[in-house]
Target: Citrate transporter-like domain-containing protein
Amino acid sequence: MVDSVRAPLLDNGGSNNESGAQLRRAESNGCIIDRVCIPVCRHVSRRNCEILSGPVGAMVVYLTARATGAGNETMEADPHKIAIMLGALVWMAFWWIFEPVPIAITSLLPLALFPFLQIMDSQQVSSLYTNDIVMLMLGTFILAQAIERYDLHKRMALKILLISGGQNMDPRLVLLGFCAGPAFVSMWMSNTSAAVMMIPMAKGVLDNLKPLASSTSSASQPPLRATSSPSLAAFMEDEEHAIGSKLHDEDEELEQEERRMAEAVVHTYSQGVMLGVTFGTAVGGMATLIGCGPNVVMPGLYHERFPEAPQVTFLQWFKFAMPLAVPYLILQWLFLCWYYCPSSAVPILSASLNRQLVEKDYESLGPMTFAEKFIFGEFSILVVLWISRTFGSTPGWGYYFGNFPNDGTVSIMAAILLFIVPNKIKEGEMLMDWKHCKGISWSVLLLLGGGFALSKGIQVTGLSNYMGMKMQFLESVPYYLLTPMMSIIINVATEFSSNTATATLFLPIMAEVAVSINCHPLLLMIPATFSSNFAFMLPSGTPPNALAHGTGFLPVNDMLFPGFMMHIIGMVLLSIFTPTLGAYVFGLDTPASSLPWIFE
Model:
């Protein structure tokens, strides 16, 4: 009876009057299930469920924490506030993962929730959205927009491709160019911006990659021998014609088979090129502190949790990340060559690649303008200032200003200068104007602020101490297994949510886990930062993945195995470099108990 009534009620084709009459009949018959289910079914949707997942999950976690006495064992923390902060953490995590609202809006939740939940007051929360790290990214974003406005990034990428391909445009070297070019560009701007520029360029080259099968030229027919018998000559002519037709058909079949093989080789190589661009943007972004969201988040969260700790500088990160990114990029290229460009494919691809096409694209940019030269020079100076601000124990230029300026200071100065200097292209027009700033990733800036607020909330409520106590069992885990274990957990999470959101969520937890097992906080925070960038397997993992998938060259199934291999390579490199080079650059071999600033 229930199904017989509910089915017509949910039929959108019926009129409202008929549905209302059916509903009244159901109510008169006392059908309680229908009276409850019908209105609910009309309003239930996937998006509504995702929206409810945040507050409902927060409430469930809060009640569970209070019922189980979570936080009672911590002497200095209020169990009520620990439970509230756990609920807020779950709310933000669910919304970051499912994205029922934009990630940037989820990042504003601390501004709305924390004051009402009495975690922090409005002034404290608001200040976290405009700290030095946020200003560093704002200045960098403006400079990146200037680079894109004058196609300076395209000029650099095409030049790298021409140099790497050589005169003969060796397909393996061209593939190296499509790995290294995006990686270099991605070191200085967001991965998405680098991919937006490089993927269409790669697609343009691949669309003109015509498979050339080996031509089979039939030998000319020998002249008929002179004979005295006309009938014999006619017979021989017919036989030779039949044999010639058969040979011609066989040649056509052979040529078609060769063409099919050549097309398959070109298609396979095209997949490798697209993956080279996508993977290259991710690997290059890891090399600098401004290359991707997780890299920017980490120093801010680290300083927020340990205010007295020495800051992670641009030079420090570069000294650790660049030696890791270079072999990562080389291994990526070797894997793509082995899987997508074997030796048997090189002759076919070499005959198909067209250097003139790339040269034409480069020449279409014309000579470098004043705007390009100025922006390139300013950016080069900015990188030098970032690197030389401090050399650790050796003072840099920041020492002569009382160490008041920071990386964000010079980044904002460089951005302001772009609005002052004319571009010498159009009278009265400056290198940058506010109209061209609309492409800035404002959502990333809000996400950074939300992450800093979340980290501070975890600290002030005592949730950090509680999580540290619960993670002390990891102290028995061998030192060399910590990085792989942590990487596996974050690798899975980052495939289904934003890289920056994943880092923002896991980094504060990793800091507390490290302290609880008497390790340097960066011993887990740095590998966690890198692992947040290892979203290689799914189109939903990152915007570059989605862009590559959208070209039509890469179905989802063809991304799984190469993405998995990139995970494995990254985990192996992290496991090697973190306890070795990391100990030299960051002192990661120092136990937490020997760090005076840990408990300050």
In short: Residues 1-16, 22-38, 213-229 have pLDDT under 50 and may be disordered.
